[in-house]
Specification:
7-stranded mixed sheet
């Protein structure tokens, strides 16, 4: 089992920044993929950014150039730096970890953290 605890959400104005953190209960160096998703009211959960164990990253088009995902393996923590926030970024943000053990993929989720951007 991998437990994920997000923090760093809050209420900000448009144009401001936030940094979300996701602390894992185990070493993340063995986790093949860590990602941030978000879900706005009435909408489906969507991928925001992902980070693979090889260091590659991927971003949703809507956040490219504004958000940055990073890993600190020593702290077993993944971050999402969010700059130039927009009202449409308002959502609950979830941390996700995909781990392969004995050839089986297991997916884990955090409890979510609310991000609200006012105009």
């Amino acid at each position: 089992q991998v437990q994920l605890v997000e923090s760093g959400g809050g209420l900000v104005q448009a144009g401001e920044s936030l940094r979300l953190s996701c602390a894992a209960s185990t070493s993340i160096s063995s986790i093949v993929r860590m990602a941030w998703y978000r879900q706005a009211p009435g909408k489906q959960r969507e991928l925001v950014a992902s980070s693979l164990a090889d260091g590659s990253t991927n971003y949703a088009d809507s956040v490219k150039g504004r958000f940055t995902i990073s890993r600190d393996n020593a702290k077993s923590t993944v971050y999402l730096q969010m700059n130039s926030l927009k009202p449409e970024d308002t959502a609950v943000y979830y941390c996700n970890a995909d781990r392969i053990v004995f050839g089986t993929l297991s997916r884990y989720w955090g409890q979510g953290t609310q991000v609200t951007v006012s105009s």
